[in-house]
Amino acid sequence: MRRIRLSNSEKIWKSFDEQLELMKSRGLIIEDDVKALNYLERVGYYTLSGYWHPLRKSCAEDPRVKKNIFYDDSYFSDVIKLYVFDKKLRLIALDALERIEIALRVDISHQLGSHDPHAHHIPELLSSGFVNNKIKKGRNAGKTGYEVWCEKYQSSLSNNSKKPFIKHYTENYERLPVWVSSEIWDFGMLSRLYSGMKHKDKTIISNKYGAEHCGVMASWIISLNFVRNLCAHHSRLWNHNIVDRTREITNDDFLGSLNKSRIFVYFCIMQKMLNVICPNSTWGERFKSLLLEFNDIRSEKISLNSAGFVPGWEDAQLWQRG
C-alpha cells in the first residue's frame, strides 16, 4: 500500500495489525492479540496511548520526557483495566455533577427571583463589574461579561424555542421568569451568572455549601464545569491536568492540603456539595467501592497518586457517612 507523507514531521497511517506490532516492538506485553486488536478498532491507538503513558520509560536527562520504550512487565491488559476504570470514574462524576448542576440552578434562580421574577434581565440586580467591565482579550473582547451571557442565553432560548414550556411562557408572558429560564442554562452559563451576582447573593449560596467565601464557591463551579466537559467529551480523567483550578482553601485542612491540579480534590468538592444536596446519598460509598477496582492493576507505575489521592483519604471526615 502506498503511503503519502507530506513532511518529515507528520505521522503516517498504520493498519490495526501494524499498530499492534508497533506496541509489541516497544516492549508492551500483549497477552491476547485478538482482544488487543478489538480494543484498537473500537477505542483507538491514540486514546489508549494516554493510558499507557506511565508505562513508558523516562529519559535520564529529563524524567518528564518519555521514550518510546516500555518498562519491563508492562501489560496491555493493565492499560485496558485503567481505561475501563477511568470510564467508570467519568460516569460516577457525571452522576454527582448532574445533581449539583440542578441544585445550583435552583439556588441561583431562587435567590435572584427573590428580588424580581426577571432578575436576569435587570442589570441593576447583578454586580457592577459583570455588567460594566469590558473583556480585554479573546473573541469576546470589547463586550461585558453580562453581554456575553445574554448572547448565550438568547442562543439557548432560540435552540429550545419548540419545547412546550418555552412556547407557553413566550406566547403568554413574553419573557421567562428566572426560575423557568434556568431550565435552559448549561453549566457554563450557570457558572458565569453565579460569578456575576452581587456579593451578598453569592455569599448566601456559598454559605449553604460551606465554601470559605463566595470567590472560592465561584472557583468550585468553574472547576466542576471543566470536569463536566472532560467527562461529556470522553476525555481521560484520572490523571488529567485540571486547567480551571479551584482557589486555595484555608478553612479546611484536608481540602487545603490536596493538589488542585489533579482530579481527586474535585471529587472531594462533589462529595462536600452532595452532603448538602442529598445527605442520604450513597454516592460516596459507591465512589470508594469503585476505587477498589484500581487494585486489579498490576503495574506499580500506574498509581492513584497521579490523580491526586493521598494516603488515608477515605478516613477523612468528608467521606464518612452519618
What would you note in describing this structure?
The chain is mainly α and 322 residues long. Helix content is 51%, strand content 2%. The chain contains 14 helices and 2 strands. It has helices at 16-25, 33-42, 45-52, 76-113, 128-132, 145-159, 164-172, 178-181, 187-195, 199-208, 214-232, 253-256, 264-277, 283-292, and strands at residues 56-58, 66-70. It has a two-stranded antiparallel sheet. A hairpin with a 7-residue loop joins strand 1 (56-58) and strand 2 (66-70). Helix 1 crosses helix 2 (33-42) and helix 9 packs antiparallel against helix 11. The longest helix is centred in the N-terminal third of the chain and has 38 residues, at 76-113. It starts with 15 loop residues before the first helix and ends in a 30-residue tail after the last helix. The mean pLDDT is 92.
Topology:
Elements: H1 16-25, H2 33-42, H3 45-52, E1 56-58, E2 66-70, H4 76-113, H5 128-132, H6 145-159, H7 164-172, H8 178-181, H9 187-195, H10 199-208, H11 214-232, H12 253-256, H13 264-277, H14 283-292
Antiparallel strand pairs: 1-2
Helix pairs in contact: 1-2, 4-9, 4-10, 4-11, 4-13, 4-14, 9-11, 10-11
